[in-house]
Amino acid sequence: MQPTNSIVSDFPIEQQLIVRRLGRVAYLPIWEHMKTFTAQRNESTVDELWLLEHDAVFTQGQAGKAEHVLNPGDIPVVQVDRGGQVTYHGPGQLVGYLLVDIARKKIGARELVTRIENVVVNTLAHFGVESYPRSDAPGVYVGEAKIASLGLRIKKGCSFHGLAINVDGDMEPFLRINPCGYGGLQMVRLDQFAANTHVAQVEDELVREFVTLMAYNDVRQEGADSLPV
User: Fold this and answer.
1) The CATH number of the domain where 124 resides is what?
2) CB 3.0-4.6 Å disulfide test: which of 17, 103, 177, 209 passes with 216?
3) Using an 8 Å Cβ cutoff, are 104 and 14 in contact?
4) How far is CA 141 from the centre of its chain?
5) Model confidence over 144-197: pLDDT tens digits?
6) Is residue 4 part of a domain?
7) Is 80 part of any domain?
8) Distances (CA, A) of 135 to 20, 44, 68, 199
9) What is the rounded CA–CA span in Å between residue 103 and residue 157?
10) How, if at all, do strands 140-142 and 16-25 pair?
11) Do strands 86-89 and 47-54 pair parallel, antiparallel, or not at all (unpaired)?
12) Other CB atoms closer than 10 Å to residue 153's CB: what's the count?
């Protein structure tokens, strides 16, 4: 079954985007949806941005080393097909999965990462937080602490997986791992700098920045009940 999200639009397909706000969901079903969507998409499939929070889970990237998982306790560890090392997802963290045909967009993987980092930096700036990317350690940082993580895979010229911004969740699980493979790396969340900030607010700003920096002109909002696979 091909993804059924083609849109009749006056805009070229590379300028069309579907945004899905999925709420709080388990990790494994969404990962399976991403893989299937990417495997089955074709030249008429519209790009998508999925926004959600996960139940607590550690995910270990393809190059992940077991020694970076220190003490997972009752939180499951899932081996996944993105790049990078181990990270944590949980309630209070905004996750954005980027299902983008970068070949059609005529950008490479490095350019996609740069644009995603800029999306996050601009989103945080809306809340009065100055942040920056680092060339030696992917992600977005406030001072020396990390506030957002990135992890992608490119298949058939299309991206999946994406970004995670710590907003107002429990940060203790990050102490159970070496985040992204860096021992002692401090992880912070947005509401430490912008009080009373919640995931829904950050979602709105992230969508605006993503649409702008990725040059989408025709955006449609969809819900969890209409996942295309």
Assistant:
1) 3.30.930.10
2) 17
3) yes
4) 16
5) 999 999 999 999 999 999 999 999 999 999 999 988 888 888 999 999 999 999
6) no
7) yes
8) 30, 34, 21, 27
9) 5
10) unpaired
11) unpaired
12) 20
Nearest to 24 by CA among 1, 54, 47, 56: 54
pTM, two decimals, is 0.93
CA distances from 224 to 2, 31, 52 (A): 18, 14, 10
d(CA 5, CA 3): 6
The pLDDT of residue 136: 83
Structure tokens at 78: 């899932």
At 118 the three-state DSSP class reads: helix
Range of 148's domain? 13-215
Close Cβ partners of 141 (under 8 Å, ≥ 6 residues apart): 131, 132, 133, 134, 147
Q: How many CB atoms lie within 10 A of CB 86?
A: 26
Under the banding of pLDDT at 50, 70 and 90, the label for residue 121 is very high
Q: Which of the residues are catalytic?
A: 180
Give the chain's end-to-end CA distance (angstroms, integer): 7
In a domain, 1, yes or no: no
Indicate whether 192 belongs to any domain.
Answer: yes
Q: What total of structural domains would you count in the chain? A: 1
pLDDT, one tens digit per residue, over 21-78 is 999 999 999 999 999 999 999 999 999 999 999 999 999 988 778 898 999 999 999 9
Hey, what are 109's tokens?
């993987």
